[in-house]
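Entry:
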Amino acid sequence: MADSQAELMRTLHDEHAAALWAYALRLTAGDRGRAEDVVQETLLRAWRSPHVLDRAGSARSWLFTVARRIVIDDWRTARSRREVPVAELPGTSRYVAEDDETERTMTAFLVAEALDRLSVPHREVVVECYYRGMSVAEAAGRLSIPEGTVKSRLHYALRALRLAMEELGVTT
């Protein structure tokens, strides 16, 4: 391993391993061994794909997304061998506490990053209609554009937002 790669992995571990382990621990319902395996596999995938870590600010979200997918893949593999009650699905209350601040923070971070990828006109209509709760008519008045333009921009903005979220590893 080159010195720069080793340094990148040390930095990545130092900055994110504790939070990633806590997240994996919640996803695995407190199973410390499985959580450690998830973290190890996540960091191994980061080592194999260092190009995804070059984007500023997205390393943690990428790591959390990979960890979540590893747990889901493990769950799916286990499910193929046996039947699992719905209450045991990753993301349910057994795995994620209702007041899970980390999950809310990660979701907010991913949405903010996806919104930043939109053009300014598209971002404005999404913010007005979805975050400020304005109707199309109210948003049109506030932005000084026709209602039809607001509807059109919302349509294309939501398509672009969905694509941006998929690029960030969020699936619906």
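The first helix runs from residue 3 to 27.
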